[in-house]
Amino acid sequence: MTTSAGILLYRLDPEPEVLIAHMGGPYWAAKDAGAWSIPKGEFDEADESALDAAHREFEEELGVAPPAVAYAELGTFAYSSGKRVTVFVADGAGFQAPTEGFGEFELEWPPRSGRTASFPEVDRAEWVGLDAARERLVKGQRPAIHALEEHLAAAS
């Protein structure tokens, strides 16, 4: 089973917004709905904690460190594929979405060409309202938005 961890930053401006990232590479280039993600990545539970992995992956994907604030575990969400992602939330008020410096990955492109090309892991990050996030996020991460709404309601 694949295990991932990520960070979902939120801000109240005055309505709740979250920071999400558009997945990079040629497959996602022309897509919007279902083509965004919480900054996250895979980790081995035997080697690192989920929160440490979430911080590492945030920086690898977005090219900047996550803000030095308190983080709360929002929950672990299962994809239909069986993959699981543990999401941590934090108040990201004042955090500016990066516009460059994103991490990269290599992929044979075009397929079966024998050529390898580098692509950004994400090609942009944006603050969006919760309804927009629900539409844009990959299906397996959408329950995290509902859990965030419950988290914010409980905190107020």
Automatic annotation (TrEMBL):
* Residues annotated as domain Nudix hydrolase: 1-150
**Record-linked Pfam families:** NUDIX (PF00293)
Q: Which InterPro entries match?
A: NUDIX_hydrolase-like_dom_sf (IPR015797), NUDIX_hydrolase_dom (IPR000086), Nudix_hydrolase_domain (IPR051325)
Q: What is this protein called?
A: NUDIX domain-containing protein
Source organism of this protein record: Microbacterium deminutum
